[in-house]
């Protein structure tokens, strides 16, 4: 499969300088990819684990799934393919537990895709995962439309694992992962992303609040910061000086817009509210 896709990728990219021919080649590339993936019969009723077994049988690699997601318009088929590819990725379940940072956290690809699809804007090109683990969400973000993905991971064994899993993407400059402590990395790092994702990577809520406030302070205007498990909103309110609303569904999205901070707690209403200062 890899050779098949790379062959058509070469045809597509070699035509970029010829204007209208680029569209023709892109259509040809997608037609070929979709035709190949049609044999897997990806439907709503198909379980991702079943699809994973099929991918393994046909030696479908993550880079192939990325090409497929670039051409596929059905969101269900996308997240099923991403999840199937994820089952074949090594994880950090068996590594020694850290007393300060969370290790492997259960990852729901469907919910992740729903959040990204609801919040991502066309101008959001660079995704960041704070506590990127084995890199599965960096891979998923590329499949969901981001041009590149950044990660920061404190654990050397997990960092090495992610480099191995995503070596094709790293070599193509689509993924860049820093081996560093998110609390100590240069603050300019957080200015590089348009969309920053976290799943409460630090166990102690006071330290987690300090990290969140550090990112909030340094992220660029127009960026979104998504915390999937906002369990520390009281501590964060005290740390940041902003009144953080209680989330309706555990997640909390924040965005900077023209110098203002806007918060979102309900994905169904999509009603961004301007944050107000705490009254001490």
Observed structural traits:
11 helices; eight-stranded mixed beta sheet; Rossmann fold; alpha/beta
Briefly summarize what is shown.
The protein is α/β, with parallel strands linked by helices and 280 residues long.
Task: Describe this protein's structure.
The protein has 280 residues and is α/β, with parallel strands linked by helices. The chain has two domains: 2-87, no CATH class; 109-274, Vaccinia Virus protein VP39 (Rossmann fold), CATH 3.40.50. 42% of the residues lie in helices and 13% in strands. It contains eleven helices and eight strands. The protein has helices at 2-13, 20-37, 48-57, 62-71, 75-87, 109-119, 136-143, 156-165, 167-171, 205-218, 233-240; strands at 126-130, 148-153, 175-179, 195-198, 224-227, 252-257, 260-264, 273-274. It has an eight-stranded mixed beta sheet with strand order 3-2-1-4-5-6-7-8. It starts with a helix and ends in a 6-residue tail after the last strand.
Write the layout of secondary structure elements.
Elements: H1 2-13, H2 20-37, H3 48-57, H4 62-71, H5 75-87, H6 109-119, E1 126-130, H7 136-143, E2 148-153, H8 156-165, H9 167-171, E3 175-179, E4 195-198, H10 205-218, E5 224-227, H11 233-240, E6 252-257, E7 260-264, E8 273-274
Parallel strand pairs: 1-2, 1-4, 2-3, 4-5
Antiparallel strand pairs: 5-6, 6-7, 7-8
Helix pairs in contact: 1-2, 2-4, 3-5, 4-5, 4-7, 5-7, 10-11
């Amino acid at each position: 499969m890899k050779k098949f896709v790379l062959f058509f990728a070469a045809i597509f990219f070699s035509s970029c300088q010829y204007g209208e021919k680029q569209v023709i080649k892109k259509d040809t590339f997608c037609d070929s990819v979709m035709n190949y993936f049609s044999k897997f019969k990806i439907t709503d009723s198909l379980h991702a684990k079943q699809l994973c077994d099929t991918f393994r049988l046909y030696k479908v690699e993550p880079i192939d799934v990325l090409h497929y997601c670039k051409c596929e318009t059905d969101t269900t088929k996308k997240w099923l393919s991403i999840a199937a590819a994820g089952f074949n990725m090594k994880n950090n379940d068996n590594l020694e537990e850290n007393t300060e940072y969370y290790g492997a956290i259960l990852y729901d690809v469907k919910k992740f895709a729903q959040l990204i699809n609801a919040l991502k804007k066309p101008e959001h090109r660079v995704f960041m995962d704070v506590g990127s683990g084995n890199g599965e969400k960096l891979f998923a973000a590329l499949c969901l439309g981001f041009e590149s993905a950044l990660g920061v991971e404190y654990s050397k064994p997990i960092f090495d694992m992610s480099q191995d899993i995503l070596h094709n993407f790293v070599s193509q400059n689509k993924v860049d992962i820093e081996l560093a402590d998110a609390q100590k990395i240069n603050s300019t790092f957080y200015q590089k992303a348009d969309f920053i994702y976290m799943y409460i990577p630090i166990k102690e809520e006071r330290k987690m609040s300090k990290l969140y406030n550090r990112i909030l302070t340094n992220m660029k205007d127009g960026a979104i910061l998504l915390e999937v498990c906002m369990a520390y909103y009281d501590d964060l309110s005290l740390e940041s000086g902003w009144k953080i609303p209680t989330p309706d569904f555990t997640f909390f999205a924040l965005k900077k817009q023209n110098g203002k901070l806007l918060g979102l707690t309900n994905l169904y209403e999509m009603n961004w509210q301007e944050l107000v200062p705490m009254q001490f």
